[in-house]
Design a protein that fits this description.
Shape: elongated
Number of strands: 19
Strand content: 15-25%
Oligomer: single chain
Strand order of the largest sheet: 14-19-18-17-15-16
């Protein structure tokens, strides 16, 4: 019987070659392959087996020789590293059979692909939907490769990169990083493995922003995580889904409803592929309002949510506690009490402080303005939250300009028609203070409170698990 067996020999280590592959190699009269790979199979060759090895870029010649030997009656094995069907010899063998109208039978034996081996060494980075992209433009135009990169980045695929670099292709990986950073957080985990499964093996985990293409060569596999991927104990982990399985006992009814709502909101976002530090408060805002225009009007300083949360945690660890000051009592009422107790937070509203009415009369200002003045005197570094009164937000801006207030953060969501937009423009210029702003006329105490709650639940953001303190 005329037959060619195309064999995936794995990434390079003996333990990663399947028993079926070893049997096919040991039974072959003729073994055809790229000369570099013969070092991995030589111990398993049949005595007297003929080895046909060629250099790089000789794939077509190897395929022709394989058919010629098979047509002469030899039992032929064509070897490919990794899996023969993934950037390997299998597609070419089938195409050549079609071209030659050959009666040679083709059999393909799968192997462990390099990205699978690299993934196992990194942890579990491929736990959800993924894709594999080769940066080699020898047979694919770069314009098409770039479209595929953008598609992978925007669709939140975990992405494995083959052929990331060579002596002649030095810039493509830089371009890939640039494109991914347009659609992914700089904190997205990136793992890369050099010479996976071989003696020279090196395993590295970093972040997208710190990833240096100069650390990569042609023997390296790069894996970029999705928005849910994270590093834990020097391993790269991607959950199986946006929501982990939990038992009914672990969730109360309010949490179940909230998580189902978040699933629905996430599926209906126009732009799902935004950094988690922006998506997390956005999901909360839409959940509270059922208003998808929040996608356009919710402004978030870069990393504002984790920055404010980390300040709160530092205060807690140092025993100082954090104060949250709201402009009106309704905003304070919506901030989750359980979360505040958990994090050592005091929520205060000065609106009904007996000193406020007197100051408002004496100074000719609104009561909410007077409340903010008193709050700044006593807690200048608080997290300030505005869900109603633009004059109160403008007062805080003036006090910051005078150096009297140094807020931990600002939630700016006053609502209305007079001075509302102006107050939000005013606060936006304070670039050293992390802020979340509902731009335009919209806002409200309910939105302000839910944005605070998104900060207090930041630890649950990566897995999009809302409702811890419901």
């Amino acid at each position: 019987m005329k037959k060619i067996t195309v064999v995936g020999i794995g990434p390079g280590s003996a333990e990663d070659i399947t028993p079926a592959a070893l049997q096919a190699i040991s039974e072959a009269d003729v073994v055809v392959g790229y000369r570099y790979y013969f070092q991995f199979v030589t111990p398993y060759l049949k005595e007297g087996a003929q080895c046909i090895d060629t250099g790089m870029k000789k794939e077509r010649e190897r395929a022709q020789q394989a058919f010629e030997m098979a047509e002469q009656g030899h039992q032929v094995a064509v070897i490919s590293s990794g899996d023969a069907g993934i950037y390997g010899m299998a597609p070419l063998i089938y195409e050549m059979k079609r071209e030659r109208d050959s009666d040679v039978e083709i059999s393909v034996l799968p192997g462990i692909s390099a990205f699978q081996k690299a993934a196992s060494l990194l942890g579990t980075p491929m736990g959800h939907d993924f894709c594999v992209i080769s940066l080699s433009d020898l047979m694919t135009p770069w314009s098409l490769i770039e479209r595929r990169i953008v598609a992978a980045a925007t669709a939140d695929f975990i992405t494995a990169i083959y052929n990331p670099k060579s002596h002649g292709r030095y810039w493509q990986l830089y371009r890939l990083k640039e494109l991914f950073l347009k659609h992914r957080s700089g904190e997205t985990p990136v793992g890369f493995v050099r010479q996976a499964g071989r003696e020279e093996q090196e395993v590295t985990i970093t972040t997208l922003k710190d990833f240096n293409p100069e650390d990569i060569d042609m023997f390296t596999i790069v894996i970029i995580g999705n928005s849910q991927s994270y590093e834990w104990q020097q391993k790269m982990i991607t959950p199986r889904g946006f929501y982990r399985d939990v038992t009914d006992e672990e969730l109360n009814k309010g949490q179940e409803i909230m998580r189902e709502s978040f699933r629905t909101i996430n599926s209906e976002l126009h732009n799902k592929d935004i950094p988690i530090w922006r998506k997390w408060p956005l999901l909360h805002a839409i959940h509270t309002t059922a208003d998808f225009s929040m996608e356009e009007i919710l402004y978030t300083d870069e990393e504002a949510v984790p920055t404010i949360y980390n300040s709160i945690r530092r205060n807690q660890e140092e025993g100082k506690g954090t104060y949250i000051i709201t402009d009106v009592t309704m905003a304070a009422a919506g901030i989750r009490k359980v979360a505040c107790e958990r994090l050592g937070i005091n929520v205060m509203c000065y609106l009904h402080d007996e000193r406020v009415a007197e100051m408002a009369r004496e100074k000719g200002i609104t009561r909410t303005q007077a409340g903010i003045r008193l709050a700044v005197e006593e807690h200048p570094d608080a997290l300030f939250v505005f869900g109603n009164a633009p004059t109160a937000l403008m007062e805080l801006c003036e006090l910051m300009r005078k150096g009297k207030a140094q807020p931990t953060g600002i939630i700016a969501a006053p609502v209305g028609f007079v001075h509302v937009c102006e107050s939000k423009h005013m606060v936006k210029v304070f670039t050293d203070v992390p802020k979340i702003i509902v731009e335009g006329r919209k806002g409200g105490s309910n939105i302000a409170a839910t944005l605070v709650n998104s900060i207090l639940a930041w630890e649950d953001a990566q897995q999009l698990k809302p409702g811890r303190d419901v």
